[in-house]
């Protein structure tokens, strides 16, 4: 079990991986105009869902579900970090403020602020700062870097190898679960341009939570492997 304290480099590593994952999804930090506004809006909604949705971060905190709490924090890293980057407020080399100013703030207070940030559409930097402060307050209880790597591996399994699946069957399976509607899919070349292609299944509507995405959201298909997070609880 990893017991070292989190460093700015740890957060920068997670941010870089979030960018890598989004590049594979076709999301670009360099987009402009209406496309950028749509992506910002999508990531704010995704961030709010990860914080207040049923079974997500705050719900898991209230239930005392440690696995759910850890999963919620890591999912928020994926959504809120990219939300902040889209608004030009990502981490930079030498950003020691996150250790110097955030470590002393009580995690539960930051979680309350985090919900408020996303409900009232505050600048992304507010939710970004409060998420980092909450993680730092909980670092003695969880191995966040280990859990992040586990979830990253799981997230990559959402991409199906084209030669291993039957696309109409996959679309039918996703619809049959009743959560996502207005489905689509993209074909993506593997990293480095070798090894064939992946299929990314996406949805424009989350019927379960009543959310519509202007930019379709990547969703799970049959190749998805759940992360095993229990081993990252200290």
Descriptive notes:
By secondary structure, this protein is of the alpha+beta class. The protein folds into two domains: about 10-155, no CATH class; about 160-220, no CATH class. It is built from nine helices and four strands. The protein has helices spanning about 10-25, 35-50, 55-65, 65-85, 95-100, 105-120, 125-135, 145-155, 165-175; strands at about 160, 180-190, 195-205, 210-220. Strands 1, 2, 3 and 4 form a four-stranded antiparallel sheet that branches. Strand 3 (about 195-205) and strand 4 form a beta hairpin. Helix 1 crosses helix 4. The mean pLDDT is about 90.
Topology (SSEs and partners):
Blueprint: H1 8-25, H2 33-52, H3 57-63, H4 66-86, H5 97-100, H6 107-119, H7 124-137, H8 144-156, E1 160-161, H9 167-176, E2 180-189, E3 197-206, E4 211-218
Antiparallel strand pairs: 1-3, 2-3, 3-4
Cα distance, first to last residue?
A: 7 Å
Give the topology string: H per helix, E per strand: HHHHHHHHEHEEE
Number of domains: 2
- Describe the biggest sheet? 4 strands, antiparallel
Number of strands: 4
Low-confidence stretches: none
